[in-house]
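Question (not urgent): is this output format expected?
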Amino acid sequence: MIFKKATNSDLNEMQQLYIETIQSVCKNDYNPEQIEAWISGVKNTERWLEVIEKQYVLLAVIENKIAGFGTLKDGNYIDFFYIHKDFQRQGIADKLLKALELEAVNQHSKIISSDISITARPFFEKKGFIAKKEQKNIRLCIELINYKMEKEL
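Got this back:
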């Protein structure tokens, strides 16, 4: 596995990974309507291109395929963090998170935070993140629960 910075040419593969991972990995924690509402964000191509341009976007690549990606916004906020459905439980998330935390430290951040899904919460708790509050987000008139979590670096 190698890490590389994302470019606009990675957009389609990143979006496909996002959709398939949510549909597959999160189906035990969110119902079909919630999943549809969640993945609807993929249609906002302008937002995705802005993420690639302005955030620290790290791709985990295995045999020329994106196995996962994570983004760091403003040096201290994990905006996106997804591991491909076919690459779950292989240590990729652990390595990707460590790389994002290292970048946050390099940017002089003392705390790293994120809004974490029900599905991902146990992973982030094992990595030292603490849930600060449960959040109810409304997307397409559907309620999605996630957690504001943070970790001291």
